[in-house]
Amino acid sequence: MTGGNQMMGLVQLGFDVPALQRARIDDYLALSTATKQCQNWGYDRAVRYGDPIYTCSVISGTQCLNESVTLNYQCQGVALPAPQPVY
Questions:
Q1: In terms of pTM, does the model score above 0.85?
Q2: Which residues pair with 16 in a beta bridge?
Q3: Which of 62, 65, 72, 79 gives the lowest tally of CB atoms within 10 Å of its CB?
């Protein structure tokens, strides 16, 4: 997690891409990570919105040597408390 806002239910995930490699996004892992954060905040689930944001911080000629990728998620729903056992 690289950023977020609990009150607005926004989760930002990011990762760096090794030099001369192409970014591969594992949608399942990213969604489960964002959902886990949303649930920690009391929401039910996360939904990805927008396209991935690619940022290059080190350029050599026409090559990007250090790229980062940011994914944005919106938390939705209210997590229901676990049922309490009846004694």
A1: no
A2: 68
A3: 62
Coil, strand or helix: which one is 87? coil
Measure Cα distances from 11 to 42, 44, 46, 87 in Å. 13, 13, 8, 39
Amino acid (one-letter) located at 74: Q
How large is the greatest C-alpha to C-alpha distance in the chain, in angstroms?
71
Tell me the three-class secondary structure of 49-77, residue by residue.
EEEEEEEEEEEECCEEEEEEEEEEEEEEE
pLDDT at 82: 64
Ranges in the chain, pLDDT < 50: none
β 3-5/43-60 pair status: unpaired
pLDDT of residue 81: 67
Name 11's Cβ contacts closer than 8 Å, sequence gap at least 6. 1, 4, 34, 37, 38, 46, 72, 73, 74, 75
